[in-house]
Amino acid sequence: MAAAVPSGGVHLLHPRPWLRHLQRAARPLSGIAASSRVDHAEELNSTAETPEPPMRRSEEKDTAAYYPKRGQILELVCESLAYKGKGLCKVAGTGFVVMCDRVLPGEKFIGRVTRKKDNYAEVKKLETISPHWDMVEAPCEYASHCGGCKTQNLFYEAQVRAKEQQVLELVVHVGKFSNKDLEVDDVMKPIVPCDIQFHYRNKMEFSFGTKRWVPAEMLLQEVEEPNKYALGLHAPGFFDKVLNVDKCLLQSDPANKVLAAIQDIWRNPEFGLSPYDVHSHRGFLKHFMLRTGRNVETGQPELMVNFVTSSYQPELLKPLVDKISPFPDVVSIMNNVNTSVGNTSMGEQEYTLFGKPTITESLRGLNFQISANSFFQTNTHQAEILYKLIEDCSFLKGDGSEIVLDLFCGTGTIGLTLAKKAKHVFGFEIVDQAIKDARRNADLNGISNATFVQGDLNKIGENFGEYFPKPDLVITDPNRPGMHMKLIKFLLNLKADRIVYVSCNPATCARDLDYLCHGVPEKSIEGCYRLKSIQPVDMFPHTPHIECVCLLELNGF
Ligand SMILES: C[S@@+](CC[C@H](N)C(=O)[O-])C[C@H]1O[C@@H](n2cnc3c(N)ncnc32)[C@H](O)[C@@H]1O
């Protein structure tokens, strides 16, 4: 049986008139596929490598003779956006590829070479000569500094087009799928844009810092000592410098009101509050997290505020709690105590300072309880669309006869939304708290045909398959490093009829699709899947992040 690929019932952007042109241009590039391979997590300590930027074969010869020097000043034009939203540019007359942060397609600029890589260099933008195509005014004053919204000043349709192009290039160069594979079977689907482009994030995490980072162009005068303290977002590339922010246009309005209220008072010397210093390891306030959910009965926003501190001293937090607890949407104020020198926000101990320890949210007709540290999709609106696509792609018969394996299940949201159509769902996840949340969420929704197990999927043994009956469908939703080779081998032996691969990193996704479909010849591993569809979804407008839902079918199925 071969499944037809769903068209979705979702809002797809324009058919892609430029796609044919791009695919034609992409064909001669396949020669560098081997060198642009994203090495496997096993060999890379679980970090995804940046795939090397593509280069036309006709330009390779010139490039071989040319290499810019470190510190060299170049006049460049950004051609497209590549991995992590970096601008891809070519040195005139040589075709040599340079990558530059914070430039956009069509922008002409002066850059200085900062780093040399194997066959490309990195450049820092010094000055824009003429702006990019599709320029719009960025509504957020921090947009060009905070490192989050790299493309807020790019017209939204151009943002999604660039993301779609990036996925296509990775599938061709890293995944080694031919244009015929992608074109004949209509494998590559147009990206699903996000209808809500601001205030879509249900979770933001800000940091307290002793060193306020002020971008050079905003630096007017020396600031006084208490004002050197900051609450905001880390300056790009610095773990110890924080850009102070009073509001973030990606989070909800109620969350911005709470952030502004805390900014108003936390530096008051009477309260004796100090930010944690990541060098001396002294100080109290580490992070400030805001999570927005929804009361599932009234539909009203529910806000959780989480103070992460280096010790448990609730009396110090009292003035802050007193200030924000009267806000009507604030239903939970938590304190995670993290005594380690690391910068993580997850506490070893968690205390409820006000209200309840969880907030609620609904997704595809189910209700979920979310605690301060549990994973939950950060764009609830687009998660509805993403989960609908996953369900459509899963081709479950709906007669309750099929087994679903939900790998990297988090708090169980995908598996639980599929449970009504399945005989049983088996979910695996490394974070113990997430597994507890998944079980509680199953109970909350009266779902009894789901089993959630804590375990490390990078360390599965030969007997992993004994934990569940052979699945008809595997959902795999790894985090950025993608799947470990052990898991790839396991899936190739398991031979489930269908795999739905959900990915937040198209580079490692393309690598794993290559393994599952074409095998790993150097390890004598044969692939046994056919790529049926790749559906990019924009979950995070203005940022470089791209989500993809891919359907794989067992050969001969
Ligand atoms: C992208 S999230 C997906 C969560 C979930 N599927 C959802 O949609 O909400 C990836 C999940 O993989 C988990 N994870 C990361 N590494 C893991 C590992 N080695 N073994 C098992 N789970 C892991 C993370 O804790 C996280 O919950």
Description of the molecule:
The chain is an alpha/beta fold and 557 residues long. It has three domains: 17-163, Beta Barrel (OB fold (Dihydrolipoamide Acetyltransferase, E2P)); 203-363, OB fold (Dihydrolipoamide Acetyltransferase, E2P); 373-554, Vaccinia Virus protein VP39 (Rossmann fold). It contains eleven helices and 21 strands. It has helices at residues 17-26, 57-65, 156-173, 179-184, 253-265, 314-324, 380-394, 413-418, 432-444, 485-494, 506-518; strands at 73-81, 87-91, 96-100, 108-116, 120-130, 203-209, 230-234, 242-244, 285-294, 301-309, 330-337, 349-355, 358-363, 366-371, 403-407, 424-429, 450-454, 473-476, 498-503, 529-537, 547-554. The radius of gyration is 24 Å and the shape is globular. The termini are close together. Residues 1-62 have low confidence and may be disordered. Bound molecules: S-adenosylmethionine (SAM). S-adenosylmethionine (SAM) is lined by residues 375, 377, 408-410, 413-414, 429-431, 434, 456-458, 477-479, 504.
- Mass-distribution shape: globular
Share in β-strands = 25-35%
Provide the residue-averaged pLDDT. 86
Query: Major beta sheet, specifics?
Result: 7 strands, mixed
Question: CATH topology of the largest domain, which one?
Answer: Rossmann fold
Query: How far is the N terminus from the C terminus?
Result: 5 Å
- The CATH superfamily label of the largest domain reads Vaccinia Virus protein VP39
Bound molecules: S-adenosylmethionine
Low-confidence stretches: 1-62
Number of domains: 3
Radius of gyration: 24 Å
Counted by DSSP, the helix tally is: 11
